[in-house]
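**Sequence, structure tokens**
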Amino acid sequence: MEVINKIGRRKTSVARIYFQSGNGTIKVNNKSLDVYFPSDILQTIVKQPLNLVQEAGNYDIKVNVNGGGSKGQAEAVRLAISRALIEVNPEHRPPLKKEGFLTRDPRMVERKKPGRRKARRAFQFSKR
């Protein structure tokens, strides 16, 4: 099997993965998964699509991820892995779609506007 290259995004995080058959190692920015994401919750988020379609341990995944925070990065990696699994086997699409792993979450921080303290918050009004 050749290397599959996919991109996942979440908030300002961008994850590019290189997906190929192997023995189940996941490297994130040249570190092992449990070193880069020490939290069990974030490791679970990354592995969710593989566990859902019973493909955990069948593929080697190399991830380059940057931008955003750790949760956004984990969810960006999850989206990229889900997209790669569909390219490997189109039958994986219905269960992944049902769980919402194929939806690119578009929510981002709204930009700060001029004349305001934050995006929508006005400066404190003083009558006198």
About this structure: The chain has one domain: 4-99. The first strand starts at residue 4 and ends at 10.
